Amino acid sequence: EDKVVQSPLSLVVHEGDTVTLNCSYEVTNFRSLLWYKQEKKAPTFLFMLTSSGIEKKSGRLSSILDKKELFSILNITATQTGDSAVYLCAVTPLPGGSEKLVFGKGTKLTVNP
Amino acid sequence: DGGITQSPKYLFRKEGQNVTLSCEQNLNHDAMYWYRQDPGQGLRLIYYSQIVNDFQKGDIAEGYSVSREKKESFPLTVTSAQKNPTAFYLCASTGRDPTNTGELFFGEGSRLTVL
Description:
heterodimer, A: mainly beta, 11 strands, globular, B: 7-stranded mixed sheet, 4-stranded antiparallel sheet, about 0% helix
């Protein structure tokens, strides 16, 4: 059974801290890994990773994939209170498309001022 | 602006009643999805539709029904057969993409509470 495990499930930090969120997966055939940010309601897309070792970056957020060790990390530097959210990791296995997405339970990040 | 609109945002129902959640998109996306999110749980797929007049069951379809009569619309009915319907429901869509690596666009969700 395909599975995505995120850790930690919950994290509380102070503004300015750097955090690393983890996502490990087990899928029969890997296609892509996606990160979403869910602040209150609608998850919003952050990154899609398909190749090992290539860092994706957007402002203070970055992510990288290790297909050999079957995990990805999401880094957030100089955290701000606006980074408080649930971060979801999902994997698309082959064959198939979005209907096959497997989601982790999410990491709830709280950034205190 | 293009996007996905879900309604209502909050809904209360009594046990034994069916309720229908609306999902409309103006992104011209072919595929639409319904997910259920429970506290501390990942998103679980209820139903999905890749084309008008066709839909498939997801992982937790029991107690739910859908229709896809128009490309823009994918309503979800939570029936009285659903044993534990209190949850947050998310609708999503994605366009026709030959690579289809999985990026979903989400609505803002509907929170259903059964009293």
